[in-house]
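User: Quick one: structure for sequence A, then sequence B.

Assistant: Sequence A:
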Amino acid sequence: APNPVAGAGRTSKLEACSILARQVLVPLGYRTEVVVTARPRDGHSQSVRAVADGVELLVAWGGDGTVNEVASAVAFSSSTLAIVPAGSGNGLARDLGVPLDPAGALQVAGSGRDRRIDAGQLGDALFFNVAGIGLDGVIAARLALPRARRGLVGYVQAVCLEWPRYRPRRYLLRGDGVEYEGPAWFVALANSRQY
């Protein structure tokens, strides 16, 4: 599910993505259907329908947010998730060793080996790489704004804007025999070798 929030020339970019997906996946024996997301949670709802329809392979083409939406729908099903990294960080794709070029990622999607990964849960939401609350969550929310600058520069800018006004909050954390209660700037839960 390519994410169309890519800026100028988006129609031609989407068409090029569709053509590339077909060029790589059809010769590998896949019948392809390209579905484009238009708003937040589209990737999840469209993927839930695809899983219910028995689609074997869902390819999430986008950043970590798009990947998380599709992965949340695929989790615990018989469908397989593949990733074409197209975000500013691509944390899960990097952790899994997915090629960063679209053609290479599609090749792995169509002919790579299946691999089970863990899913973390924070409240009712699943995560597949990192989830954070506190300052981490505030920064993530700022970076999710429509005109936010992405990448390392955007992250540093968001930290510089939010840090001075943020006040640590009190948390109670319990899990697997570990308990912590007290103030913290943020809490990050990682399901990744990078963290």
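Sequence B:
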Amino acid sequence: MKKTYIYFVTALVLGLGFATSAFATVGVGVGSGKITVNDQLKPGTIYELPAIPVLNTGDETANYAVSIEYNEVQPQMKPAREWFTFTPDKFTMDPGKSQVVRINVAIPVKVIPGEYFAYLEAHPVKADVAGVTSIGVAAASKLYFTVAPANFIEGIY
């Protein structure tokens, strides 16, 4: 009986040791919760927005990217994803490290003036593996800005 107990405990400890080392976590955080551009942005102009730090809050090295995402139902207009460029657009980070991402927005000449809203979402980039399902994590900063009318007539309209 005592020998069986020792084998069981040894198998349990070894099993837990292997199980915990097989499960690494991928995490992400952003250093800014909200970015509000106070000046009205003019059509046909490129603006540099405040940079955001992206943090690897997990315990493994991972690839990351930043993208524009939207709230399904929002009163503000949604800026097109094509307006934004991120530098770097994809990057790799070790656990506990951070990467500052610069953001530019190019307001097109023909644009509807008004209030805009989007999320600047940082997320890990996972390679697709056939037959494997994964749950994605993300963190985001809220971005608010206003586009001014291009000319006097558009402003009246």
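The CA atoms of residues 42 and 84 lie 15 Å apart. Strands lie at 29-30, 34-36, 46-55, 62-69, 84-87, 90-93, 98-106, 114-124, 139-147.

User: Thanks, that's what I needed.
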